[in-house]
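Complex record, two chains
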Amino acid sequence: MAKYGYDDTPFLPNTKWRVHDSNRPQPPVIWPGWFSTQEAPGEPPSDAIILFDGKDLSKWISVKDGGPARWKVENGYMEVVPGTGDIQTVEEFGDCQLHIEWAAPAEVRGEGQGNSGVFLMGRYEIQVLDCYENPTYADGTTAAIYGQYPPLVNACRKPGEWQVYDIIWLAPRFDENGNLIRPAYVTVFHNGVVVHYHTPLFGPTTHRATLPYQPHPPVGPLRLQNHGDPVRYRNIWYRPLRGYDGEPEWRDWTPIVMAPRG
Amino acid sequence: MRVIAAGLVLVAALTVGFFVGVMAQLGYEDTPFLPGQRWRVHDGKRPQPPVVTPAPIPSDPPSDAIILFDGKDLSKWRSAWTGGPARWKVENGYMEIVPGTGDIQTVEEFGDCQLHIEWMIPEDVKGSGQGRGNSGIFLMGRYEIQVLDSYENRTYADGMAAAIYGQYPPLVNACRKPGEWQTYDIIWIAPRFEGEKLVRPGYLTLIHNGIVVHYHTPVMGLTRHRRFPTYRPHPPVGPLRIQDHGFRVRFRNIWYRPLKGYDGEPEWRDLTLAVFPDLPRHQSSAK
């Protein structure tokens, strides 16, 4: 193997790698895809797991009965059919980069319109709502971590226009006794604007109350809420978030960086 | 004049009062407080997030962005060597490094932010390894995100495109081909010092062409070549610097937004210990 770096440089403090280490693993190569526009959904990256490509709901089931998801699919999007309940993915996953696009109904019906929600691991909600010139309580605004944190800014597009959530999600971790050892963290870009950055969740989502964490596995389904409004979704994919140098999980390097340097 | 001013103040006061009144009705005041926080669940008095209009086209600046380069001129930039005018070429909506003219940096200094920058390696690039389309984005003039043609061009992992140079390789190689524009979307938390002491490292999140390649990664210190990084105290703001490494690399559409905290707080902060004071400390994000 040709030598691409160095083997005479100092070690990075408290790590097993030298500066510019020849032997440090090469990151996997992927094709990044293309961004979406109003006119057309983009192309997911080559290493993404596609949850909805605009054609069918084969990756989704009804939360109520575990049977087929009964939302409408047409013109490359899915649309909430009131009365058919929430839907969720068959696939379960944890730490990830998640991309999802949605549009509130173009016809404005007044307060509470375009209400739905993206539930990470079936439990933790990022609010979907039309808050374009339509205020509600801050922690229930579009892109809020519902009932916990308002978005840093309100970056809504008009109803009828496609909006994007790019989410970086770290699932909570529990020890063998069910104690919380790391809360869930979320970062959200709404239409390209940062609205949460590495924010620790208080616990699972509920309405008008707070709930403590209940232990659960590090993976779960993605759930979309049926709140009775015909909200549309398209171009849904995720990529598992891993660690550096082939480590299976993301981890906080702060203790390594802040430890005394020998 | 004074009457008009007084009138304006009155109108402003009434307007604020009106909105506070409306907001109080938007939520609840009989719900429990969020644990350890000053806000109730669905608190009607919790401040409304400021409205920002996103750009119609992906990657274009939102309404609250500070534009550092709009494709027209280098008026916001100067030579990092002399402090005089930046002498890179501007044409067709991009700037291009003129090798030998030196690094350039923004007049403006800033700290915690969301930063967007696009770059392209010209199609006629030559060379290999570090010698192929090399440049770099230096946050606060000190902390480098590598710019390099890493499309089918191998180098040491911590020196490839999107690496935190000399410290962390990107999680994946999400490079586009030479001749294609590439995007960096960065969330940057500047390090904090108390006197000589580092109390919080700089944190970097980088999204390369839409792909997460660093997430909340603590930077180990100043960028250096072949030496390990250390911190030296500096103010919480600094200029954005772009490196002239002797290669023609193009840049366009550069903007940032200061990153602030929730509810009008002036700074982002790690809320882990505020929300979970009893967490085992080694598991939480450090102060």
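Note: Residues 2-26 of chain B form the longest helix (25 residues).
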